[in-house]
Amino acid sequence: MSANLKGQRLQGERSDDRSTVGTLRGWLLTIFVLGAVGTGVELLLLGHTEGAWQWGPIVLLALSLVVLGWRPVGRGATGLRLFQGTMAMFVLSSGFGLWFHYQVNREFELEMYPSLQGLDLFSESITGATPTLAPGVMLQLGLLGLAYTYRHPDFGPKAVAASPGDSNHHDHDEDEDHDDNDENNEDA
Question: What is the span of the domain harbouring residue 54?
């Protein structure tokens, strides 16, 4: 196969890859927005508003949507960096939320059964009235948002440079050229 045809084939594959990645990025964003809106509405309906700590995830969810709403106006790396920072706060808030939910359940169990301790206390606390693992949704949304920004084209050409898989593919093609030359040399 001539070098020109191989180059055209590779260019077409890279264009298809960019189209596929763009489509996946759009789905990631859609899933994130649906998750953020749904989680925010659920927290408000559950009355997750009793103190500053309970408002934390609601504020972060709203902030993420504001930052995303700004993206069409402020295209470029700055908006994405703000979104990444918000996603990092999502991940941190998940850890805090897990700890707070567990502590609330633990305190309740100790009020009800002061003699509880060890594994029994942990088991009752983790399965208590306050859903201990519910803040994990903030972790999921944060990681989903970070996946959306991974090597985003708005970060510039260096961010979307060929991945190791692409360079291996390219090296493989060069090996094919080398093999073709070896075959031609054997025929000579």
Answer: 24-152
